Fold each of these.
Amino acid sequence: MRERPPPLIVGAGPAGIRAAITLVAAGLRPVVVDEGHACGGQIYRQPLAADKRDDRARYGSEAAKASRLHRAFAALGSDIDYRPNTLLWNLRDGAADVLRDGTSRRFAYDGLILATGATDRVLPIPGWTLPGVFTLGGAQIALKAQGCAIGRRVVFAGAGPLLYLVAWQYMKAGVDVAAVLDAAPLPAKLNLLRALPLAPGIVLRGLRMAAELAFGGTRVQFGVSGLRIEGEGRVARIVYHAGGRERAMACDGVGYGLNLRSETQAADLAGCAFRFDPRDRAHLPERDAAGRSSVAGVYLAGDGARIAGADAAEAAGERAALALLEDRGLPHDPARAADLEHVLARIDRLRDLLEAAFPFPSHGAGDIADDTLLCRCEEIRAGDARRAIARFSLTEMNRLKAVTRIGMGRCQGRMCGAAAAELLAAQTRRDIGAVGRLRAQAPIKPIPLAAGLSIDERQHDPAH
Amino acid sequence: MTRRIDCDVAIIGGGLVGSSAALALRGMGLSVTLLDKGFCGAQASGVNYGGVRRQGRPSEQLPLSQRAHAIWPRLQQLIGIDGEFLRSGHLKLARSADDMASLERYAAEVAPFGLDLELVGHNQLRERFGVMGDLVGGSFCPGDGHANPRLVAAAFAAAARRAGAEVLENTEVAGVSRTFEGFALEAGDVAVTARSVINSAGAWADRFARAFNEPVPLERTYPSMIVTEPLDPFLSVNIGIEGGGIYARQVARGNVVVGGERATPLDNPDYSRPHSDGALTIMQRASELFGPLRHAQAIRFWSGTEATMPDRNPVLGPSATTPGLIHAFGFSGAGFQIAPGVGEVLAELVRDGQTATPIDAFAITRFSPASQPGGALKQQ
């Protein structure tokens, strides 16, 4: 009898790490595929080369968690088949196609835990493609992984808790943070007080960051709209509406983002059913409280399944791994599973309040100016999309893609898809959940054609 | 509440064939209802390779193909966009002396149809067309080209709608039957009565043919395609290879579309996805043939669901069992170029009962010998 193929974990952030630890403890030897060069995901990303900063400087209040996860993952050693710098680009019928160093390989897996994480969500604003404009996550990674700032005098704009965290980290790193421009009106922040009993540590830390920013000379502005970034060849200033008038602020770097969006392509290729999630304003793979998807043997954990943050990702990664063990008939700990679900439910309630405190400015999509670039890869402007929607009577995302090329380029809609959906919904006066979602196609990210030249050496053995 | 529509012609299937027929029928002043179970142009018409090619077609298709050939340059007037149609020429490559001989035979055979084929040797392939690889020669058809299928099919449907056709998307035809006056169709909450019905349901057309006692050996095939990131222009012509392999074209934006191999259906056989092995094989062959592709990235794969007949010719013409019913399906992966011509032919068949374009070779009776409506076929 052939040996059963190993389970596959995609992603080595907090969810993937916890899943790996849990499977190893049960005697399995999972394959862990990760695009990063080292474990940690985006939140606990490690530097490419050692620098002089310690974890405390790099991860701030989360340093202890980061160190613990890094150490625990390293301790797994050869108990896992760890493949860093490796892109999962297709999934089909229990086999994964991965690319590393330009060579594609395929291997069989039995049990799949997707911990694919999240990226920034953006709505295009005038000037968003100017050099010097970064997403909030990108600005944070530059600082965390490379010790670089995105400018000398920086403005952070958009929505979400990350807005304040990144601004505060930049201030602590000695960068002049000119302003934090929050799309949410001040009254929305009252939800933070409701969240206080659920997570006093998190809420108080957030409030302290905002206070330190304000005392440090950063302009903290609520209820911001009409964002526009200007400059000749690169960022020179940001213009915005607040308090009933237009204001401008000089800066040479802008961090911009509207919370996060889940990376769901792998779940789509794995055949998972999706449904619309109002809180995240996105179609997400369905899962039960344990992380089981609609496909037997496929489990979902972390921000890749729904935005809930790093602590939830750890719990969900472990919970999904326990579900995999249970479904295989292996020993597992039901009491532990129940505890984890309790933790996840509590964080979920907290997320509801955080989302209310940092709401997505959904009205913005209807306002995107016609000459603003909507799809960077294919260079499609908002006006192009609007004309196509009218001409072809479009009501659905994949038809919008087919006719305009939005979402057909290098990013496959990962960057522009959310904005395109908002625009389509606004123009057709439909609910955002009713315009559908872009179907994922392989490859999840671009792969070199030359990968086909390695076809004869490609391995087809079950393990690796 | 059921909505009732009465019209001259009901068209089942809003692909390029059905949509262009709808537009042509509106041009004749007939009332048209176009029904699609999904979105018009979202199946094979919209996700095919985009070759606008006469070269390589069997000679019985060439009169129809030539008719369509005259329509492609007029898309702007006809449907309001040019569909990114480029009269680039189509170059078919020969990898062996045998293949070259086959191209020569074909050129001689189709000479009377006016394709103006030009046979080119090995050296010219590199000098004129920048094609490398182990090749003997090729055959060049200067009037052929390529277009954007995602736009063309959708634009025909949109133009038909603007011209007054009732276009009903997400409206699957659940039942169609012959009545005393014509036909009755049930589709969701719509009830359509029509004097004529066109069955242009593509890979789903066999179901409707069978309903009128005309079973056909339709098979589904799933062509597999990849597209690269935008590259500097290096490929001016639409490329095919004698005997198969890959086909490739570069669009104005710079992306190179390469097809070949077959995809495999998903659990729901209406949908398919390229297989990794097939996609990698296409990538391998393409990078062997075109130097600039060796350092390019593939950004997307896709596939579609095509209706293929055993003899690779479509079924096109009146039903042999049911007056007023006209079939047009089974274009076997080569329908894109001829579809606008098929639309005109279908409109003539509806209005006049005949067409000047020879289509006898495509009669459904080659698969389903004429029988009576109402189940006479069962006794055969």
Amino acid sequence: MKRPLQALLLVVSALGLLHATVFTDLYLRYVKEGMRPLLIASGALLLVLGAAEAWSLRKPTAPDRDRGHDHDDEHPGHGHGHDHSAPPRIAWLLLLPALSLLFYAPPAIGAYSASREAPKAVEVKDQDAFDPLPATSPLPMTLTDFTTRVQQDRTKAIAGREVLMTGFATPDGSGDGWYLTRSIFSCCAADTQFVKVRAHGTPAPPADTWVTVTGTWHADGTLGTGSADVALDVRTIKKVPRPTNGYTDALLPGAG
Amino acid sequence: MQKTDEPAEGAAVRAPHAEAADAHAPASAAGPEDAAEHSWPRHWPLLLLGAAVVPGAVLFLVGRGLEEPAVQAWRTVCLSIAVQALPFLLLGTALSGAINAFVPARVFNRLLPRNPALAVPVAGAAGVVLPGCECASVPVANSLIRRGVDPAAAFAFLLSAPAVNPIVLVATAVAFPGSPEMVLARLLASLLTAASMGWLWLWLGRAEWLKPAPRHTGHHGGRSRWTEFRLGFQHDFLHAGGFLVVGAMAAATFNVVVPRSVLDTFADSPWLSVLFLAGLAILLSVCSEADAFVAASLSGFSPLARLTFMVVGPMVDLKLIALQTGTFGRAFALRFSAATVVVAILASALVGGVLL
């Protein structure tokens, strides 16, 4: 690989990273918010490396220009003394993620994966940890909270309560209903897991549409035990924009 | 585009795609270069333009196909693995470049016991100091070997660093609340595997399996140490980065093709589930800081099987095999990974059987 191309590759990678972090929020589709400083630092470092490489090529007398032979590229990685300058051509693959970030960023993980995965197992909660529910109605809840209340809270505080939840729609091929879904990951989008609440009573919105729904527990099974169906009889449904960080199961700010 | 641009442009596109098919494909990359003293290719502005424009155009043309949700999911997973690992890869390659350029070989001789059999566990325990993903440890281990550290000790470090560092242990404790024995079992089983593999290398390992790559031989006269550092860093990053993308692609393919819900069918048989989760750890290629959460979510499996998942994962996975192939050569990567899987499963079974 020619050295100007190495400089180019470094700079394009840097631009991809910086584009996804500094100028846009694209990185939130793939990794956690906490990665932002690391990614910006990586982008800056790559930019400096690329610039340094380009700069060193401008000076014909630079001491590191020790490549006398032109055939380096024919033998990548096969003992040519100390030639730092010939990484194998596989390095070109770095262009794919970089250009992808720059020009054609894929969307966040959504309904396609959610429809193929079982819902995330919800942590078993201590009975004492169930505080009385606030009196507001409709009551804003996360999908995880709803699942826990339905399947574990023996006081059945959720019975008859109208709740308000937000998530994206995952169609269910098998028949009636669809899934209100939130995706959660702990490291990057590759380990995404899904929390799902089955929704009854409205036609399914198109896949990946973000909606806020209100409704009550869809009575099926014994409330407060594992047999209870994690499902909702939807009363109202409203389209909402995708939250910036869709990979959490949190209440929407402002949505109350 | 004018007609005259086409050859150079075509060449610029062929290069990355040829890579995907075969890393050893003959060169069609940069076109003939004149033997002039400056190394800028004659057509480089065109190459630049081609590199910027043509992949976009190709993507646009096959855009309909790329809108398929499965392809989108594949691209998302692939990109997220690459983006997540990149800072750690940079950290590792910077560290390895710095070790090459700034740390004299005698430092390692002083720190490590002279006897390789003793150096192995010491190096394994030293893995605690590198708080990063497994991507960082491959280049660092490589630079240790190049600075004269016994390969056996370097491999013990390579295996233990991603598995026993404080970040990973804390993540494990968070993922398994109320079971500190899981953290302890992970620490012990990982150290045991790392040390065993080091000793195994002393016993059976052959130097010729390692790719001869004496590229970095420390500081030379005539170059500044900073230039040495920069070039080593750059070379290692570009090299390992390409293999990281290969690994991410492989992991994404598995991730999209096999839904996780299929896995639960294996949860019933105790021995099968251990082997199965070991295989899953290799295929999923989750980074070591996150694998505890994935393991915790595999709730249908026994604690022993989940421990195996967490011991094997940071030591062998698709992304690591790709990185090791690039760094140490294929002959090494295949033998070493296969042996590591076996040793890691045995170590997990042993430690897990006692502790869990």
